[in-house]
From TrEMBL:
Protein name: Cell division protein FtsX
Transmembrane region(s): 39-62, 186-206, 239-262, 282-303
Location of the protein in the cell: Cell inner membrane
Lineage: Bacteria, Pseudomonadati, Pseudomonadota, Gammaproteobacteria, Lysobacterales
Keyword Membrane belongs to the record: yes
Amino acid sequence: MSTAKKATAPSAPSRLRVWFDQHLHSLAFSAGRAAGKPWATLLTIAVMGMALALPLGLSIVMDNLRHFAGSVQQSREINLFLRQDVAPPAAALVAEKLRARADVASVDVRAPEQGLAELREAGLGEAIDALGDNPLPTLLVVTPTGQGDESRLATELEAMPQADLVQHDALWRQRLDAWLRFGQRVVQVLSVLLGLGALLVVGNTVRLDIQSRREEIGVLQLLGASDGFIRRPFLYLGAWYGLGAGVVALALIGGAGAALGGPLAALSESYGSHFALKGLDALHSSMVLVGTVLMGWLGAWAVTGHFLRQTRPTET
């Protein structure tokens, strides 16, 4: 008889099961606490979301500028305008000589007639007809290999006897790179400052929730509850705030991108470019949400840890 009872007695839950149940209860309890005060929760999430949307939006702008600058960097051509008295056969010989150089990837020869046709397509046909003869020289578009010194190549091209004018935008590209590095540093500084601000918002909100439950926490401490058991619901509360703030930040970024994408595409199309604003993909959006959840968790952990150290009962 005792053997049958012993066989049918329920087994004690495993430690993993108990741990999982406690975390699931804390997750649901913290969600209920946040839903129980909707206006305060929405205000906290909105403030955090706007604070996080600013550096996130600036980071996206910098990524698009780097993408645009990368396409500019790929256009590394050096324009070599030959003198007017250089005949087409002589221009072809100069091009062949340049193609033989180790630091030159390619040379494109553009005859004066090609330049004249491009100007007519740009709407300057009447002005060109008024000039009579074609005033344009032969143009050699030299593309460096990228492995040598482009400034030195441009200087050597300018010293050629057939050269009349050399256009090389190396200095402009260097300044553009410097501005992009400065902008990236600004984004990093703003991200740190506004991230700290979001942490303070979470910490202050969780602190108010802790203050409203001070007596309950005191009873739990007298009953021997561990700091982890007391801290857990507040950590999940901070995580809920972080998740909501991440969703708000992504929504703001998406709305801004939708509002600016159309006018930017029309503007770039008017210049003959197909540049389009690039936003966050699914992977980066998920990384943003994970980061905001960790930020909320960290803010709540710092506040609850400080509170528990202050209210821990002393041994007598």
